[in-house]
Amino acid sequence: MLPEPVTIAPGVFWWRTALDRAAQQRLVDAVFTLERQAPFYRPRMPVSGKPFSVEETNFGPFGWVSDERGYRYSTTHPQTGNTWPAIPEDLLDLWQAATSHPAMPECCLVNLYRGEARMGLHQDRDEEALDAPVLSVSLGDTATFRIGGTNRRGPTKSVRLQSGDVIQFGGEARLAYHGIDRIIGGTSDLVPGGGRLNLTLRRITKGRSRSNANAR
Prior knowledge:
The protein contains two helices and 13 strands.
């Protein structure tokens, strides 16, 4: 059972400490176990090829990738060529508890922030299923999260996301610009080696039932 969320803006909901320490630890353990199959790597910016400051991997039938050819979803890891591991069941349960979408997520994008890593304002718009919300889980160090509207130059709001917090944006906020301004190092000892993990659940394709999240 999730606590009552805080509404940050229309379509943007924030569950503070939705996950207790034990649930957080299970997810961190799952990430670093699955990372042996799908290792963290640094995506590159389209055209320029500049490496991201964050490290990434994915779980599920699809993984979000970026390189000189652009942003897209792929069924295989760009370095190993292997298919992505399945999304952990705890995350699928969380999706069902937090969203009313009739189909399950098909991608869990995992971002690992260490040191000065950040994420500039961007939209999640590479998915067909824009009717499905995006659900984001914070683990580890506190982060300053910023979200606005569908205009990059519009006003934004910032909140500090702590370990165990969950954010959902959908509906009119599905294409909201959002990003991570900074990580406050040393605020958590959860992530081995320090830093923050962000697990973002997304539905990629339209249709299918809730039971096919990890089908290939």
